[in-house]
Amino acid sequence: MAVMQRIKKPTTRKGKKVLQAKEPKPIEGPKQCIFLQGRNPSERTRKLLKDIYDLKKPDAAYLSRKNDFVPFEDAALIEKLCYKKEAALFGVGSHSKKRPHNIILGRTFNYNVLDMIELGADNYKAMSEFHNMKVLAGIKPCLLFNGPAWDLNSELKRLKSLMIDFFHREKVESIRLQGLEHVISFTANDEGMIFMRSYRILLKKSGQRTPRAELEEIGPSIDFKLRRTKLASDDLYKEACRVPREVKPVAKKNISRDAFGSKMGRIHVGKQDVSRLQTRKMKGLKKSIEEKKQFLMKKKKAKQDAKRSSVSKE
Fold first, then answer.
1. Rounded distance between C-alpha atoms, residue 90 and residue 108, angstroms
2. For residue 95, what pLDDT is reported?
3. How many whole angstroms separate alpha carbon 144 and alpha carbon 288?
4. Pick from 37, 33, 70, 75: which is nearest to 54 by CA?
5. Each residue of 80-123: pLDDT tens digit?
6. Are 223 and 195 within 8 A, CB to CB?
7. CB atoms < 10 A from the CB of 249, how many?
8. pLDDT for 218-229, tens place per residue?
9. Residues 94 and 38 sit within 8 Å (Cβ to Cβ)
10. d(CA 187, CA 176)
11. Which stretches of the chain score pLDDT less than 50?
């Protein structure tokens, strides 16, 4: 059941700024996320959420307090906390006999739940069990989605979009090779298993200009099992993915590119008087006496017509 948030009219200048900061913007920053504990979370789910929180930092908040609720039955608490924390993403950990080591990942639209996907952590190896150097917090990771199931299964398609929202940060126009330090890999199979792995990129000497890249696993290592899903309708999902008009690129007219990527332009030039072009003075190009007489007569007639028109106006 959707919870309608009551919007108050601002009475002070500070309150007006707070409400303006919550309004949708044409270009949004990194999406904020909250991680909270559900009903009877296990030690595995707590550690797992903490590791995902470490990968998402600093655009995340971790709430350690237990909450006795089931998101698939009542999502009012999630919508309330997302509105309070101004978060668009959430993660909930819980544990039961029917659904052991349960993780629910989801996102909101207009502070109402848009998508929720339930995953079971069958195998898990924490980040602390990998005794090596980790990457710095806030680094933009490379996301790899392996396997054809990501494009064939509709639920996995939505999960792929959700994972991109989780780990996507600011949009960049260019990439520096030394800035690529972190890779998160997601491999899906036909049985509904998703294998999440995290690696650190090592750039080593190769004797050439391009270095040799090696991957070192830094954790966490998680084997997810796809369970329940609660996905938005196609119309609502299309509305949530709508791009504002001011952000859409403006098409440039009369500019195209050829097969080699070279930019081609079309220029519109007005009609030119070829008779007045300055050419090289050659005997073959000189005007004859008759052509000179005709040119002078036309010039004289044009002056007389201009004089008559000025007299008639007076």
1. 8
2. 93
3. 78
4. 33
5. 999 888 899 999 999 999 999 999 999 999 889 999 999 999 99
6. yes
7. 6
8. 989 999 999 999
9. yes
10. 26
11. 1-4
Whole-number Å distance between alpha carbons of 4 and 250 = 36
| C-alpha–C-alpha distance, residues 203 and 56, integer Å | 24
Q: What is the pLDDT of residue 2?
A: 45
Two tokens, residue 49: 């959420």
The amino acid occupying position 277 is: L
3-state SS, one letter per residue, for the chain: CCCCCCCCCCCCHHHHHHHHHHCCCCCCCCCCEEEEECCCCCHHHHHHHHHHHHHHCCCEEEEEEECCCCCCCCCHHHHHHHHHHCCCEEEEEECCCCCCCEEEEEEEECCEEEEEEEEEEEEEECHHHCCCCCCCCCCCCEEEEECCHHHHCHHHHHHHHHHHHHHCCCCCCCCCHHHCCEEEEEEECCCCEEEEEEEEEEEECCCCCCCEEEEEECCCEEEEEEEEEECCCHHHHHHHCCCCCCCCCCCCCCEEECCCCCEEECCCCCCCCHHHCCCCCCHHHCCCHHHHHHHHHHHHHHHHHHHHHHHHHC
pLDDT of residue 281: 66
Q: Which domains does the chain have, with CATH numbers?
A: 30-171+179-229 (3.40.50.10480)
Question: Of the candidates 228, 188, 192, 195, which has an alpha carbon nearest to the alpha carbon of residue 103?
Answer: 228
Q: What is the pLDDT of residue 285?
A: 66
How many Cβ atoms from other residues are within 10 Å of residue 50's Cβ? 17
In whole angstroms, what separates CA 13 from the centre of its chain? 33
Write the burial class of residue 140 (CB in 10 Å: 0-12 exposed, 13-18 middle, 19+ buried). middle
Q: Under 8 Å CB-to-CB from 287, ≥6 apart: which residues? A: 295
Q: How far apart are CA 181 and CA 199, in angstroms?
A: 8
- Cis omega (within 30 of 0) on the bond before 58? yes
